[in-house]
């Protein structure tokens, strides 16, 4: 079997003025990503996602990958990551290269699953899982005034009992937002917070101490991703679990987090970290050092499908039967037609359960008409 065609499809959706979503670093209005469609001589179509803007992904793919992809056997998928580190030499580990590798990798796994008639999570060695626990990524900062409890109340009403909220704008503001979320979620719900790297280590430590009594499952990106020494300092100054990974690319960056025990949970984004093959390597490194894994998702429906298949493949280790942990996947609660409209059957997280597709490959079908609405080329 050989790949006969490959096409990069840039997508974008802009939120209306005044309705931007934000984190501690500011507001954003554009949701942009890139899909990759491959087709084989066996008639299989595979889909992948590169979580970078379309013009960058298109130029990167055409400059570095197009010639070698046509004629490639999709079953060679696990060689993509290794080849990316050595050819192109020196910049193979960049976010742009690894994002395109991610798209190629996911698309190849999608094709392989269709060829052998199995969902990807089974191909990755996972046992059959029918459902995952979605956690609601919500309580964004907004340009319009609204009661801060509203998004948490809507998430709880939809059946979520695990949520992640945005904080990182000051110690007292952080505590107020966390207190509100905990009151709505209740004592038994799982509550995570995301600082989006907006603090210095001393500021992050002070805020973490001030919210620790609200039973925080993890603090995500308390300092910028490049501030490795800051993570090390926080490990010595707080007992609350730390998480990071959305801004790390490839096994080598994740290995630093894992080897030095800088975080308790690593969060590879399947459309940036190198795809399913590299995410599996990252998960093995993490489990070897008893570090948790939970994929980061801020993607289209294709990236979400890849994250679900990956999460469903994860082993129970390092968790024991006596200390159960749910297998979770992030579900962004903001408006995102690139996630919901481009799939014939969008994922439904309501009721606190997310079904794992059992059909071959990613287990999704693309709505080509909807895709055309959001193409930017």
TrEMBL record:
This is Mandelate racemase/muconate lactonizing enzyme family protein. InterPro entries: DgoD-like, Enolase-like_C_sf, Enolase-like_N, Enolase_C-like, Mandel_Rmase/mucon_lact_enz_CS, Mandelate_racemase_C, Mandelate_racemase_N_dom. Pfam families: MR_MLE_C (PF13378), MR_MLE_N (PF02746). SUPFAM superfamilies: Enolase C-terminal domain-like, Enolase N-terminal domain-like. PROSITE patterns: MR_MLE_2 (PS00909). It comes from the Archaea. Gene3D superfamilies: Enolase-like C-terminal domain, Enolase-like, N-terminal domain. It comes from Haloferax namakaokahaiae. Residues 145-241 form the Mandelate racemase/muconate lactonizing enzyme C-terminal domain. CDD domains: MR_like.
């Amino acid at each position: 079997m050989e790949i006969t065609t490959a096409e990069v499809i840039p997508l974008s959706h802009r939120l209306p003025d005044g309705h931007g979503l934000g984190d501690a670093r500011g507001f954003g209005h554009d949701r942009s990503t890139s899909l990759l469609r491959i087709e084989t001589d066996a008639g299989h179509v595979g889909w992948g996602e590169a979580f970078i803007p379309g013009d960058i992904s298109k130029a990167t793919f055409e400059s570095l990958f197009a010639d070698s992809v046509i004629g490639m056997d999709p079953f060679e998928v696990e060689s993509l990551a290794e080849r990316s580190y050595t050819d192109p030499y020196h910049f193979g580990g960049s976010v742009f290269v690894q994002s395109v590798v991610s798209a190629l990798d996911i698309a190849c796994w999608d094709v392989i699953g269709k060829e052998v008639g199995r969902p990807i999570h089974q191909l990755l060695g996972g046992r059959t899982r029918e459902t995952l626990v979605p956690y609601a990524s919500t309580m964004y900062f907004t340009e319009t005034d609204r009661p801060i409890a509203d998004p948490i109340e809507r998430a709880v009403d939809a059946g979520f009992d695990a949520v992640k909220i945005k904080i990182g704008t000051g110690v007292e503001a952080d505590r107020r937002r966390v207190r509100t979320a905990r009151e709505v979620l209740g004592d038994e719900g799982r509550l995570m917070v995301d600082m989006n790297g907006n603090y210095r280590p001393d500021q992050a430590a002070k805020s973490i101490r001030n919210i620790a009594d609200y039973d925080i499952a993890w603090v995500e990106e308390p300092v910028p991703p490049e501030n490795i020494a800051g993570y090390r300092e926080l490990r010595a100054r707080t007992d609350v679990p730390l998480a990071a990974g959305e801004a790390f690319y490839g096994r080598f960056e994740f290995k630093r987090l894992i080897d030095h025990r800088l975080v308790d949970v690593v969060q590879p984004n399947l459309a940036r970290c190198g795809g399913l093959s590299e995410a599996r390597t990252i998960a093995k490194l993490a489990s070897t050092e008893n570090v948790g894994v939970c994929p980061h998702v801020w993607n289209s429906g294709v990236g979400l499908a890849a994250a679900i298949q990956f999460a469903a493949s994860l082993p129970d280790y390092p968790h024991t039967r006596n200390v159960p942990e749910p297998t979770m996947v992030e579900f962004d609660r903001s408006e995102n037609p690139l996630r919901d409209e481009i799939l014939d059957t969008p994922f439904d997280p309501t009721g606190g359960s997310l079904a794992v597709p059992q059909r071959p490959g990613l287990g999704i079908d693309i709505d080509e008409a909807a895709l055309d609405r959001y193409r930017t080329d």
